[in-house]
Here is the input.
Amino acid sequence: MKKTMNKKDQASQNLILKISNLHKRYNEGKSNEVHALRGVELTVKKGDMMAIMGSSGCGKTTLLNMIGFLDRRSAGDIIIDGVDTSTLSDGQMTAFRRDNIGFIFQLFNLFSFLTAVENVETPLLLKGVNSGLAREQAKMMLRELGMEDRLYHLPTELSGGQQQRVAVARALINQPAIILGDEPTGDLDSTTSYDIMELFRRINKINQQTLVLVTHNRWIAEKCDYIVHMTDGKISGIEDLPLIRDEK
Ligand SMILES: Nc1ncnc2c1ncn2[C@@H]1O[C@H](COP(=O)(O)OP(=O)(O)OP(=O)(O)O)[C@@H](O)[C@H]1O
Ligand SMILES: [Mg+2]
Here is the structure.
């Protein structure tokens, strides 16, 4: 029997992320409780490239941490690619995160005892890619980011901006369905920031990877399809950027 699909089904199939009534309270029940997320509602379509903006302390990093399961939510639902993440065990969550989500956060968390190229190839090795291929792909990605002459340096031998580029390469190498960036170009000069945004745009177009980027920088945000504005732990508005989207 032919299965017919209504519009609603089609729309929901195309969603990579659906967040409903998400709350996060830090120090729950204590006198210093902070209600950081207060009922976030957000849907993101596969292949969207979005920026999150909002004043300091409004909950942007907290929201990314919830999406990436780096911290527990207090209440609410997060559905990623049709999977209700509240049903996953800790072990399943770790595997799901490894296979589906790439992180580019301000604290680079590079392995200090591994060279740049070793840091970048690690996610591939963890996935079981053979070491020769993993090394080739890691080198290619670092070359793309202008790091070809720093492949065998340790993080301590690299500048802040170079370390950040290694972190970007490591997040992208796996081709995760969702890439979460917290000020991913924060410490970089404007030329490098431009190159990285171009790279994001390219992988977004070619691989249909979804990018969720927190930024304070309006110029960076305008490279995305739309801007989600946050105020006091909630989404306060969505600003479409039609000109950029038409270029896609
Ligand atoms: N581990 C924590 N314990 C207690 N409160 C926290 C913790 N982390 C964040 N907060 C509080 O939660 C609120 C949201 O913080 P969050 O880091 O998400 O803000 P942000 O929008 O990312 O800000 P910024 O732009 O400065 O990075 C803030 O009031 C912050 O003080
Ligand atoms: Mg933050």
Remarks:
- The longest strand covers residues 15-26.
- The first helix runs from residue 7 to 13.
- The pocket of adenosine-5'-triphosphate (ligand 1) is lined by residues 26-27, 34, 36, 54, 56-62 (CB under 6 Å).
- The radius of gyration is 19 Å.
